[in-house]
Amino acid sequence: MAVLAASGASFAQSTVTLRGNIDVGFTSAESNAVKTTSATSGLASTSKLIIEGTEDLGGGLKARFYTETGLAATTHLGTSVATTNTSSSNNVISERTSTAIGDRGIFVGLLGDFGQINAGRIPHQTGAFSIGMGGVQHAFSNAVGAGSAHPGQNSDVLLSSQNEGRANNSFLYTTPTVSGISGKVQYSLGGGAGDGSQGSRTTLVANYAQGPVALEVMSSTRKSYDAGSTSATGATPAQTSSYSAYSASAEIKETAMGAKYDLGVAALGLGYAKQTTAPATTFRATGLGVTVPMNAWTLAAGWAKMTPTSGAGYNATSLSAQYAFSKRTTAYAAFRANNQASGEDKLTVVGVNHSF
């Protein structure tokens, strides 16, 4: 749904768009011979509501805003958790009764011939490894992600364990595309009171997309940070940009690349990612993927090799099928298996996704 309006003072046109999707499915998981089943929201694509808009400022310059809110379609509850401090624990979880607006991204920006500049809560631009991964994308990206949660990154997740792909207090510059080549520079402030450099992240991305070829490389560094002081920053880190609930962390560096070649009858993908925590603890992942479109059907398969920082390496294999009833409604089924030393983890999903 789009609303088109004009300002009486400047006659500049503004466009506001409401869109999103609802995704609900059934999951069956097995880990070390223990089976669980559940209804789950956001299996193929996160259930979400997006409100975005642009304003024509004249001379080729436009302003834009963007908000993305996650939806829990199976429970109506929010997709985030609130976190507070107590004397006994830094992490007390209480699921919200409604989703926080903009939990998946909220920012404002300017765009023109120079490219685009955005500021706010912005997704980390660390997804190079997922390009063209097809059916193995989820297994691959979940293993590497954007690193562990860190100061300033996200106040709405369990601080001690949750990976999070978005950064508060973030600035992103995207270059214009010239002959298929573009780039991105992102800087995200840390969360220390009076010291925004602790836990800050700098990311550089280069892209190439021309004809059947798509390439992306990424380098990212998240600075170290000290353990927070609860007494110095107050008792509610979920409400502030402090890092009072975090333990100290060393510097983390990430590099990744992805490549995809579209043959027409099939698209082949390759991904590689490495994460190093100072001084020399390294995690690596390599993946291969293939996607085959067949009229209304899209079939995909993938394989990934994980080399963790400790313990034995393991493989992840996945298969998926999607059937498009229309441009907006798709049914899907997928299977994924992680072959670990402790045993094989299996996941089967079936669901429906509708965009609007």
Summarize this structure briefly.
3% of the residues lie in helices and 55% in strands. The chain is mainly beta.
Q: Which secondary structure elements does this structure contain, and how are they paired or packed?
A:
Layout: E1 2-6, E2 13-31, E3 34-41, E4 48-58, E5 61-70, E6 81-84, E7 92-95, E8 106-112, E9 115-123, H1 137-144, E10 166-174, E11 181-188, E12 201-210, E13 213-222, H2 230-233, E14 252-262, E15 267-277, E16 281-294, E17 297-307, E18 314-324, E19 329-340, E20 343-355
Antiparallel strand pairs: 1-2, 2-3, 2-4, 2-20, 4-5, 5-8, 6-7, 8-9, 9-10, 10-11, 11-12, 12-13, 13-14, 14-15, 15-16, 16-17, 17-18, 18-19, 19-20
Walk me through the structure.
The relative contact order is 0.15. The chain is mostly beta strands and 356 residues long. The chain starts with a strand and ends with a strand. Helix content is 3%, strand content 55%. The chain has one domain: Porin (Beta Barrel). Residues 1-10, 79-98, 134-164 and 229-245 have low confidence and may be disordered. Strands 2-4-5-8-9-10-11-12-13-14-15-16-17-18-19-20 form a 16-stranded antiparallel barrel. A two-stranded antiparallel sheet has the order 6-7. The protein has helices spanning 137-144, 230-233; strands at residues 2-6, 13-31, 34-41, 48-58, 61-70, 81-84, 92-95, 106-112, 115-123, 166-174, 181-188, 201-210, 213-222, 252-262, 267-277, 281-294, 297-307, 314-324, 329-340, 343-355. It has 2 helices and 20 strands. The longest helix is centred in the middle third of the chain and has 8 residues, at 137-144. Strand 14 and strand 15 form a beta hairpin.
